[in-house]
C-alpha cells in the first residue's frame, strides 16, 4: 500500500472512533471549562502533547489555563478543573494527580479509552474515547497505526471540537483569538 491509502485508513479509523463518543460528555466538559476558575491539563507522552495543544487554544480564547509540570504552573484549588488525557487511565503520575485533585476538591475530567480505570472511576466527567491504546494485546487487528496513535489523534480532534463549541458559546472568532497568539516567534 502507498501512503495515501494509509491516510484513508487512518481517517476511516478516526471517524469510527469519533462517531461513538458520547456528545453529552463533551458538552459537560465544555460547560466545566467555562465554569472553572482555572483549567489545568496533563497527560503523559503524546497524550500530554495533545493536552498542551488544547491548553494553547484555551489560552487563545482568554481562559486561565496551565499545563501541569511547567515551572509557571500554580497550585490547584477548589473551583479549578483538572483535565487528564490518559488512554489507560492508569498512568502512575496521572493517578497521583487525580488523587490530589479530589483531595483539593477541584473538578476532575478525563479523556480515556478506559472509563473503568482508576482515573475514570474517580473523575467527575469522563469522556470515553473508544480507541485502542498501546496496551492492547492484538493492536494490529484493530488499527493499522502504531501504539496509541488512534487514541491520541482522536483526543486532539475532540478537544478541537470543544474549542469550536466554546468559540460558539463565547462568540469568539479566529480573529479575536489571534490577538492572544504568540508574537515573540
Automatic annotation (TrEMBL):
Keywords: Isomerase. Residues 29-172 form the SIS domain. One of its GO terms (molecular function) is isomerase activity. GO terms for biological process: carbohydrate derivative metabolic process. The keyword Isomerase applies. Belongs to the SIS family. PHI subfamily. This is 6-phospho-3-hexuloisomerase.
Amino acid at each position: 500500500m502507498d501512503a495515501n491509502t494509509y491516510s484513508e485508513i487512518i481517517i476511516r479509523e478516526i471517524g469510527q472512533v469519533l462517531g461513538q463518543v458520547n456528545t453529552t460528555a463533551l458538552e459537560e466538559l465544555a460547560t466545566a471549562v467555562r465554569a472553572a476558575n482555572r483549567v489545568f491539563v496533563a497527560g503523559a507522552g503524546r497524550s500530554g502533547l495533545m493536552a498542551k495543544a488544547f491548553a494553547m487554544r484555551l489560552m487563545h480564547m482568554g481562559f486561565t489555563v496551565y499545563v501541569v509540570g511547567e515551572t509557571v504552573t500554580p497550585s490547584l484549588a477548589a473551583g479549578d478543573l483538572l483535565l487528564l488525557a490518559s488512554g489507560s487511565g492508569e498512568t502512575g503520575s496521572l493517578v497521583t494527580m487525580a488523587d490530589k485533585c479530589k483531595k483539593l476538591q477541584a473538578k476532575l475530567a478525563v479523556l480515556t479509552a478506559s472509563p473503568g480505570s482508576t482515573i475514570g472511576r474517580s473523575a467527575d466527567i469522563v469522556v470515553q474515547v473508544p480507541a485502542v491504546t498501546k496496551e492492547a494485546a492484538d493492536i494490529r487487528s484493530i488499527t493499522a497505526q502504531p501504539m496509541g496513535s488512534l487514541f491520541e489523534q482522536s483526543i486532539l480532534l475532540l478537544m478541537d471540537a470543544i474549542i469550536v463549541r466554546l468559540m460558539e458559546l463565547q462568540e469568539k472568532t479566529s480573529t479575536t483569538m489571534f490577538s492572544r497568539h504568540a508574537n515573540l516567534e
